[in-house]
Amino acid sequence: MPTLRNRSSRANPPSSPSRTTVNVTHVFCPEPHVRTEGEDSRHVPEAKAGQAATLIRNVANLNDQKLHKELARAGLPHFETVEDCRKRQIRDNALMEAAGSIPSQLLHALRREECEDFDALPFDSGASHLAKRLYRAECILSATPLIEAAGQAHLLTAIDSTMRRPVGKLHTVSPARILRRIKDCLRQTSQNARAICGVEACFDLGADDNKFWAPHVHCVVAGINAAELRDSMRDAFAHSEVYRPTMVQPITLGEVARTIGYCTKRGDILRPEYTAKNGRKQRRKQRLRSHLQAEFASWTAEYRPKDFVALVGFKRNGHYLVTT
Description:
This protein is α+β, with helices and mostly antiparallel strands and about 325 residues long.
């Protein structure tokens, strides 16, 4: 059983009228912040020339309707609901309990999220669907304006054959190691790079009964020329045995928020291989089988939601996300 780690409880950027540039210490905010009753004073960090920042929304204080309204305003009209998360949590908890692959203490904490009157912060575990949902929403609302302000954004997908793991060995995959490699490559390519990257692990089932976990990375990248990005990633993954290990696609205007949501999703799917009518091998998406879902949930339970996401070109500074 894996050990549980300790943790505390294509164009220029759109000029939408809903987002305004605030000429105060060069801070870029998606909207003015209104302090609510009982909220602590939020200090705007001192910014260097050309630096930008967005307020990190405390999405846990927003009800479902308000959260969906803010996400729709950012460009993501459809987002998973609390009820969706509860249903998936009940399914995962039952599978993990049946497999005996998760400590009872953590399982008990996750079970709290099955309650209809649940209104507190979710247990900060990667196995928590509610915690993952809130962290994704935070990333979308905070990072979208900074990515859009950096110019044309691209979706980068990278996978290395050395990341593959057989059934029962997913716990040996380190999200931090995968993300560190991508971050170093992006920084070496351009000092102006801004990106948000997410790790996920699908299970690939080959037509020849070759089956394995396939961890990979999706990134929303801006501030780098597409040709430079392709060349640097091609060199970095030249040894990979995967057909087309890296792929760079332009993100259309207004699709940055939706793409960030895609990059930070859980990615727990089964991808069986089949031969299409044109003779090419394709993969369809299906739900993971129960023993695989239990293994995936147990792997995510070792980490926090933020451990599967990396930021490049900006960092947290108090209540703000600030460019570096």
